[in-house]
Write a structure and sequence with these properties.
about 110 residues, Thrombin, subunit H, 6-stranded antiparallel beta barrel, about 10% helix, globular, Head-tail adaptor
Length: about 110
């Protein structure tokens, strides 16, 4: 689901990704590779679940999150689309719209 963006955020997504981006990426949406690359911010997100009194072990997971401008990616869908970063293709596991200017995309695959 996409959220209506207030006008105050217009143009902020490309500017933010351009200033802080660390990767260039190209999306494949519904089987069609997009003609242009966009700048993205690729980060590792570490999740930790501690052991409990029932003897379960600590579990640590590292996922990769890509933040990109929402402009031009309105048709992007979880579990269907892909993104190419540095020549490697990753599945789009989940897409979260921040309602302002950016999409947060959880990636599938080893980076």
């Amino acid at each position: 689901m996409r959220i209506h963006r207030p006008a105050v955020f217009a143009g902020m997504g490309p500017a933010f990704a351009g200033a802080f981006g660390n990767v260039d990426c190209r999306f494949t949406i519904d089987g069609l590779m997009q003609p242009e690359t966009c700048r993205g911010i690729l980060r590792q997100k570490r999740e930790l679940e501690f052991a409990d009194e029932y003897g379960r072990q600590d579990v640590e997971a590292v996922t990769h999150v890509l933040s990109v401008s929402a402009t031009g990616l309105e048709a992007l869908e979880s579990e269907r689309d892909q993104v190419e970063i540095k020549g490697t293709i990753y599945g789009v596991r989940n897409v979260l719209d921040d309602g302002r200017a950016m999409l947060k995309i959880w990636l599938r695959g080893d980076i």
